[in-house]
């Protein structure tokens, strides 16, 4: 078994996503099974929804043991060494951003493979990167963080748009993936560092 | 590109459903991305669940740019002209009822195309018409309105039943769709006007 | 039409799951349509998610009238004779455990039919048995009971593992299904009787 860089980064992202599921489940005082399920849905939820929408037959992770073992590893480590994980939270956030970038690229590729137009491909990339977290929050009984805090999906959308822009250029075509990834990671980390979030629409409460 | 009456009404309904997603997201203080996602899931959620249950390959809206642009338009208009939309709430409610009727018919047709029996076809019509709102409410962290307020699904069920009844008759076969639509719209608007809702089962609290 | 023992037990389980959906909906003061939907999603939700993940075309219950009529019957009886149902709660719990066992076996069989490995088959069995309840709780606006109360999924996982263990043995191969069922029912009922639940991870609140 030989790992490409791409596959390694994918598993790193899967690990980080699963850890965020474990954290959320522990915060909600879920039991061990609840923790395991939240680790899983956070890590594979986005890809699952993508595969369902595309209608490609069985969803990808069910045939991919590496992904499954990675999630079990994350479940085990994050549950046993919860306090240690907390201390390395910065690293988890960094891996999480790597996962966001890789998952977006994977989703875009899959969309292209099924001949969807650019807009749908970017949407599939964004769904792959972000909807695991949405399912995690719904199953935890929370309003999805994605919809009211932090810049997350926007990083995927911008990164994905730049990806298609670069692919159309002669010079940078071969670097489109890597540049797209770097942009997504950069937007995510910078928006966290400077505490930037998307604007909301405020309405007078008299209108309810 | 030529629009049939049917297609136009479908887009009108899509628009109204998307607007109701925007309204809900703004009420919940979601950010711009959250508003966009709720506009989408409200408009295409019902049809997506229908297509997933049928297992027809990729879901319908992913190949239908008119639907996607209509949702973006609704997102843009309802976000920018929020207060204006509020003032025209009656029209939005009317369009919403039109959407409910059209979506029900589309769902029934799709069920027939896949040779499901009448009961399942009516269920698919009802799901197409109503489950976008259910996903909207779940993602907004609310109990689905559909399950405890207003007559909504019942309009689809009655309309759908009458549709199959009319199809079996010699005289009215050609008018089955239009009569079904009018009945759904009428039930919905009248139940709103007279504040009629479905009965609930009340239990003594001592039984928890 | 001839019923096998297996089919009868399946319908018994479907009935009990639907009743638990009705109970939850009434507790939440949902209207008649809400009660019907919760009866349905609790009874067929797990199998639906399994079929979607496998990507087998249309989901199983849509072609199975016996399941649909059983759910309608449960809806009718549990709504009309709510107080009576409450008094026979023990029986409903017992039937519910039978359903859990049968659904697990059905899910495992389906996984084997599609040539998934043992781990995925057990996961599919567990999903078939438990995720109807998860959807029920999400649609009722609750945190899924499955994740923080009672032993439920663990029974499926242990039963499923023992099933594959028995299949590998020469002597007990033919009894694998029945032993698996009995083990699942026993674990479920004993854990209820002795009030055993899965451990949770407790963290100091200072760490949030």
UniProtKB/TrEMBL annotation, chains A, B, C:
<keyword id="KW-0472">Membrane</keyword>
<dbReference type="Pfam" id="PF03458">
    <property type="entry name" value="Gly_transporter"/>
</dbReference>
<feature type="transmembrane region" description="Helical">
    <location>
        <begin position="175"/>
        <end position="196"/>
    </location>
</feature>
<feature type="transmembrane region" description="Helical">
    <location>
        <begin position="151"/>
        <end position="168"/>
    </location>
</feature>
<feature type="transmembrane region" description="Helical">
    <location>
        <begin position="32"/>
        <end position="54"/>
    </location>
</feature>
<keyword id="KW-0812">Transmembrane</keyword>
<dbReference type="InterPro" id="IPR005115">
    <property type="entry name" value="Gly_transporter"/>
</dbReference>
<feature type="domain" description="Glycine transporter">
    <location>
        <begin position="94"/>
        <end position="167"/>
    </location>
</feature>
<feature type="transmembrane region" description="Helical">
    <location>
        <begin position="66"/>
        <end position="85"/>
    </location>
</feature>
<keyword id="KW-1133">Transmembrane helix</keyword>
<feature type="transmembrane region" description="Helical">
    <location>
        <begin position="120"/>
        <end position="139"/>
    </location>
</feature>
<feature type="domain" description="Glycine transporter">
    <location>
        <begin position="9"/>
        <end position="81"/>
    </location>
</feature>
<keyword id="KW-1003">Cell membrane</keyword>
<protein>
    <submittedName>
        <fullName>Putative membrane protein YeiH</fullName>
    </submittedName>
</protein>
<dbReference type="GO" id="GO:0005886">
    <property type="term" value="C:plasma membrane"/>
</dbReference>
<comment type="similarity">
    <text>Belongs to the UPF0126 family.</text>
</comment>
